[in-house]
Design brief:
Chain lengths: 251, 420
């Protein structure tokens, strides 16, 4: 059971500092929501935690259990249990969805010293996951995210999560672009993983998602800092009043 | 440059080998003598020749090439270099070692005969063909009678150095498909050590014949491969070729194809997968000499390290070749800032009602795609390999022959030392 611990995290793109010192602790078993205005640094935080190139960490730490996340390659972080559902899932023309999922799963299993799944075992697992997410099976045969609608791409992210079974998930606006039924399906997908070993950071603009995935804590990220934290009721307050007042108070 | 020596150590070694060997070589000595004069005057082709502008043979000019003494040598080690899916194929196979047919290792189909038994040599002004004519000892002669479906045939060339000294092999393959005949030829070149493999193919397709020709060049890392293919396609015939370049320090595949009869089709597709200091050249000359012909050339290069890829594609459309449809595309994926691609399309069109297009793209590995794969746990090497496979997907998946696809996929995956 591992805790995500972020202290004084500062990160820049080029000369521009985007994260000005983030402090955040997500204990194992908890789901925390992050809300905040456009451009405040939410996706930047998710990319820095998952190890994307182009971000320079200029201060602070981020650990998951004993692991120093910032010192690891992205694939090592994935093997350590981290999963990022992308705000903008990437298209991979020429790569089949089934092959992609199987290579990802087996890569993680190999790194962990677990036996790999053969094609038959994998297909069984994938079919079950697709069924629980109400996804048509032919999506496995398609190229990754190519020609997928916005909502289908988001669902495909959740499918990957269901198959890779992370212990720490960061969902970056996975609810954006989803219809009402899909929103419930996605929430069910996340809730199915909840347990004492699973924690998540759910980035969203809409309180509605948090009706389905009830968070333990809600944080407001503005201008690269967490300016306010509270219980689920904070999301309702934001929904009613917007960010202006909170941001003004913090300034 | 001396007219007698060909001007380089390599050329001198070829000419003296010819002088010592000529009375033992099969066939018409006069043709060989004539070729030796052409080669002695020209020497190895140099960059002053427009056709060799981007490819210098300087690295091999200083080598002295030796006679391979491998008529009966065991070939197990070399056969182990052939991708396993090729050896697992359930079809006849022709194995050549250092330019000579090895009946003991082959299961030849009925339409095969050995070039050495009845050599046919013809004059050609190009130096590498003249060199081949001068010194060729053997090759595959495939004569398919009218209407025959020859199925799939595997042609393997094995080569090696001689106690650390470079050797040279100059096989001459002749493929003739009579009216309506069909053949799927999978040709693989492998080897070890330093050597020159200089094959010449003479391919003639009678009306409505179809030859599928998949070529895997997977020569040793320090070897040279310089192939020349001459193709003619008569009415309604189809030459469907795909060259996959993976090996050799320096290589070139020069195809000269003529659409000689109405509505014939020629595909000269290729992919080159190069790293380190590899240099590989795809050169094509496509002559549309009859109306309603169609030609396709999609050449994809994946270049890592200091590798250099060359594509020279020339399309000539004769005055009478109306309704010609020509398409040429060269795409490069540069995996390193030191890699380089040279692309030279040339169109020479004398007919007024034709459709000819060409294009070129150069790109790098997509950083977002690379990160997406790694964020899902895929190690960097494997992620790179998957994106390279994806870049080549349209080329490889377009191959109708399942075995050919399996062979090329095997080469792709083993190249990165990781299994998908
Ligand atoms: N490559 C880049 N170069 C320069 N600035 C960048 C780059 N990428 C992001 N930024 C800036 O960093 C800031 C934070 O962006 P980020 O994507 O993290 O915001 P966000 O909170 O996720 O916003 P949204 O709610 O709109 O998704 C923005 O001002 C953005 O313009
Ligand atoms: Mg964002």
């Amino acid at each position: 059971m591992s805790t995500l611990r972020i202290e004084g995290l500062k990160a820049s793109i080029g000369d521009k500092e985007i994260l000005h010192g983030i402090d955040l602790v997500v204990p194992a078993g908890e789901v925390h929501a992050i809300m905040g205005p456009n451009g405040s640094g939410k996706s930047t935080l998710s990319y820095v935690l998952s190890g994307r190139d182009g971000y320079e960490v200029t201060g602070g730490i981020a650990t998951y259990g004993d692991a120093d996340l910032l010192a690891m390659d992205p694939e090592q972080r994935a093997a350590a249990g981290l999963f990022l559902a992308f705000q903008y899932p990437v298209e991979l023309p020429g790569v089949g969805n089934a092959n992609f999922l199987r290579v990802a799963l087996n890569s993680i299993r190999r790194t962990r010293g677990e036996p790999e799944l053969d094609a038959v075992q994998f297909l069984k697992l994938a079919r079950a996951a697709m069924k629980s997410l109400s996804m048509p099976e032919d999506m496995l045969k398609r190229q990754v995210n190519v020609g997928f609608s916005g909502g289908e791409k988001k669902r495909n992210e959740v499918l990957q999560m269901a198959i890779l079974k992370p212990t720490l998930a960061i969902l970056d606006e996975t609810d954006s672009g989803l219809d009402i039924d899909a929103l419930k399906i996605v929430a069910d997908g996340v809730n199915a993983l909840r347990g004492p070993d699973f924690s998540a950071l759910v980035i969203t603009h809409y309180q509605r998602l948090l009706d389905y995935i009830v968070p333990d804590r809600v944080h407001v990220l503005a201008h690269g800092r967490i300016i306010r934290s509270g219980g689920p009721e904070l999301a309702l307050e934001l929904e009613a009043n917007g960010y202006a007042q909170i941001v003004a108070e913090a300034a | 440059m001396s007219a007698l020596t060909g001007g380089s150590t390599a050329a001198t070694s070829f000419l003296s080998r010819f002088a010592g060997l000529k009375t033992q070589l099969p066939g018409n000595l006069a043709e060989r003598e004539a070729a030796s004069v052409v080669f002695a005057h020209a020497g190895l082709p140099g960059r002053k020749l427009e056709a060799w502008k981007y490819t210098s043979l300087a690295p091999l000019a200083d080598a002295s090439f030796h006679e391979p003494l491998t008529l009966l040598a065991p070939c197990d080690d070399l056969l182990a270099l052939v991708p396993p899916p090729a050896l697992a194929m359930d079809c006849p196979r022709l194995i050549f070692r250092d330019g000579r047919f090895r009946a003991d290792l082959s299961t030849a189909p009925g339409f095969f005969s050995s070039f050495a038994d009845a050599p046919e040599l013809a004059a050609d002004p190009r130096p590498m063909v003249a060199l081949n004519t001068m010194l060729t000892e053997d090759g595959a002669v495939l004569d398919l009678p009218e209407g025959m479906d020859g199925g799939t045939l595997l042609l393997v060339h094995l080569a090696s150095d001689l106690h650390g000294q470079p050797t040279a092999a100059h096989p001459r393959h002749i493929i003739r498909l009579a009216k309506g005949a069909r053949l799927e030829l999978i040709e693989i070149s492998v080897g070890s050590g330093s050597y020159l493999h200089n094959p010449v193919f003479q391919i003639a397709l009678a009306p409505f014949a179809t030859l599928t020709h998949v070529r895997l060049q997977s020569e040793a890392a320090v070897a040279y491969h310089l192939a020349t293919l001459n193709v003619s396609a008569d009415t309604g015939a189809f030459y469907d070729s795909f060259t996959f370049t993976a090996g050799a320090r320096l290589s070139r595949a020069e195809t000269s194809a003529t659409i000689a009869g109405e509505a014939a089709r020629v595909h000269l597709d290729a992919a080159q997968l190069l790293a380190d200091h590899q240099h590989a050249d795809i050169t094509t000359i496509l002559r549309h000499a009859a109306p309603h012909g169609a030609s396709r050339q999609t050449v994809r290069n994946v270049l890592d390290g200091h590798a250099r890829g060359v594509f020279q594609g020339r399309i000539e459309v004769a005055r009478g070749a109306q309704k010609t449809d020509g398409y040429q595309m060269n795409q490069a994926l540069l995996l390193s800032p030191d890699a380089e691609i040279d692309s030279k399309p040339e169109l020479e069109i004398f007919a007024d009602d034709v459709k000819c297009s060409h294009g070129a793209t150069v790109g790098e590995l997509d950083a977002d795609q690379f990160f997406y794969l790694r964020a899902r746990g895929v190690p960097a090497d494997l992620a790179r390999m998957m994106l390279v496979r994806a870049f080549l997907a349209d080329s490889i998946d377009a191959l109708a022959n399942d075995d050919a696809r399996a062979i090329l996929d095997h080469v792709l995956t083993t190249r990165w030392g990781a299994a998908a």
